Fold this protein.
Amino acid sequence: MKSKECMNCGSTKFNKVENGWKCDYCGTLYLNPKKETATTEKNTSEQPGLQKKKTRILIGVVLAIIFVLVGPLGYLTVSLNNTNTAYEPIEPGTVDSSEEEFPGEWNQSIYESIKVATENYDADNEKYSFTGGSSYEELEKLVGTPDTVTSWEKENYGMPPRSMATWNKTKNGDFTSHSITVTYEKKTKMITDKDHH
């Protein structure tokens, strides 16, 4: 070690310590690597077999748990998909023009009458579908065209192409402090989400 140079300070003076060398100038320790013995090699060669056995047991337990859970969930998914939901059109209700917390032609009763579609996931095809939601076209007839529309033209993570319509202006065209956002599936025009903030 005397011909070596300290990596921290550049000194070439060292003292021998219990497990290696110590720099006299800055105190950096340089430890000698431990020598492997025949017993450690024997233990490491036995561990892969034991590890494989533990891994197989763990995989078996996980698969058993999944099987127990997926069975009832699969039944519920099938029974939920088979329920026929009657379509409920949007009912306008009475318009109260004094409500300033809603933009444009919107009011509380119109917002509450929007039925958000039920989301269904098909694990075999890894795709989502929607059922039982209100029609975006009927909503637009009631409240007018939105102030902005954002579209997702391609399928994303199994979700079909969608659009998000936002109303955030008053009847006079001024921006309001509240807005309403409605997301709908582009193909069916079924409303999949709504938000009033």
